[in-house]
Amino acid sequence: MLDGISDSAGAIVVGGGPAGLTAAIVLAEGGISTVLFDKRPAKPDNRTTALLAGSVTALGTLGIWDRCAAQAAPLKTMRIVDATGRLWRAPEVKFEANEIDLDAFGYNIENRHLIEALEHRTLSLPNLRFVGYEVASVVPASDAVTVSLKNGGTLRAPLTIGADGRNSMCRAAAGIKIEERTYPQVALTICLKHSRPHHDTSTEFHTPTGAFTLVPLSGNRSSLVWVLDPAEADERAALDDADLAGEIERASHSILGKVEVEPGRGLFPLHVATVRHFADKRIALVGEAAHVIPPIGAQGLNLGLRDAATIGELAVAAYREHHDIGGAGVLANYDRLRRADVGSRTLAIDLLNRTLLSDFLPVQGARGLGLYLIDRIGPLRRAVMREGVAPTAQPRLMRGEAL
Ligand SMILES: Cc1cc2nc3c(=O)[nH]c(=O)nc-3n(C[C@H](O)[C@H](O)[C@H](O)COP(=O)(O)OP(=O)(O)OC[C@H]3O[C@@H](n4cnc5c(N)ncnc54)[C@H](O)[C@@H]3O)c2cc1C
After folding, report:
1. If we measure between CA atoms, which residue out of 382, 395, 388, 393 comes closest to residue 75?
2. Distance, CA 200 to ligand 1 centroid (Å)?
């Protein structure tokens, strides 16, 4: 039993990253009394997230976006530039949001502002309790999952959401297998000030070590995700601010003019992983507990938010019909609904990343041809943009429909 909480809840969420916070908010908004546990992250997260249009709509519907809007920058144009210097080079491809009748593909926001807005929303929901404790064990049984905390105390619920990131304890407790691979790449993340405007344009340079992606922030600021081989990433991360700014200016072909590096650098080894099942034994996995993809094309957390919306909508519908919210029916539907969206995006991003690393000429040619066709064929181009922003079948929250 925990202070001020009885020994059972309607639902438990393990993990208070953006996917877990969103899942907890959806469940509580739908009337389910929810407890969220999170051990606070060891290091501050200096990354930013490009939230695509459906995610922004869902956060608006949940009453979160108002607090994010002032900190977020629109993404109106996306450029892909082949900077591999190889024989088979792809043409530059430029996508404009207005080609598919959107004002912006989405908005880029620093993770700290997104988390702050999500945490603020949790405080306004009386049936949601955020507990800053580490979970020590998760034990499923036929009628409920029991979660025990490191500093004592247990809680039971008929549904537990595993939002506890890459090394998910919930995934292990559910006995769900994961297929994973590590790339010989590390992403260096930095926020920058620059002398020239970004014109709401994100630019992804494809280099022989991976993508070098500049994404607008508000004002003359941008975030950089620079994918490098591990030794190079360590070297760059150890440079002083002036030398690092010089390297960034060179690699970005000075498109943003003079660059100033802001405090805080992150290093993220790149990884691809997908679970065989999204749920089992009253445990449903969301976010990086279920899938990890390289940071190309801004898909990772957008998938995580669709996971959170989907399990939330299914559980709330079951709750309102007085059905078992963690029963086999809800979990099987969740597994079915998330498979195609996560599977297709993981495959596409994995392939694109691997073609960058490949020295095999026909592979480089195929990548160049693919981008050439996308650039030249209007309907294909618009289909790629629409599918990139959102899958054909989206959760209701992503379509702006309240629970
Ligand atoms: C360089 C980079 C750039 C990216 N850019 C984008 C982008 O532009 N757009 C996009 O959509 N995605 C992007 N992503 C992906 C995105 O960052 C991730 O999908 C997202 O951060 C995952 O969120 P999460 O909530 O699933 O997991 P996490 O943020 O890892 O949260 C897991 C939480 O669980 C908690 N936890 C773990 N174990 C326990 C325990 N035992 N007890 C209690 N709490 C526990 C941790 O403290 C943590 O708070 C990027 C990723 C990288 C690496």
Report:
1. 388
2. 25
The torsion angle over the Cα atoms of residues 278, 279, 285 and 287, rounded to 10 degrees, is 20
* 266 Cα nearest atom in ligand 1: 1
- What would the pLDDT profile of 242-268 be if each residue is shown by its tens digit? 999 999 999 999 999 999 999 999 999
Tokens 């650098």 locate to 265
- Can you tell me which atom of ligand 1 is nearest the CA of 166? 30
Pocket test for ligand 1, best of 49, 270, 303 (most atoms within 8 A of CB): 49
**CA R_g for the chain:** 21
Q: Distance (Å, rounded) from C-alpha 59 to C-alpha 67?
A: 10
Measured in whole angstroms, the distance separating CA 201 from the mean position of its chain's CA atoms is: 20
CA-nearest residue, atom 44 of ligand 1: 38
Residue 326 has a pLDDT of: 98
Residues 128, 160, 287, 334, CA torsion sign: negative
Residues 105/76, Cβ–Cβ less than 8 Å? yes
> Can you tell me the distance from the alpha carbon of 25 to that of 346, in angstroms, rounded to the nearest whole number?
26
Q: By alpha-carbon position, which residue is closest to atom 41 of ligand 1?
A: 135
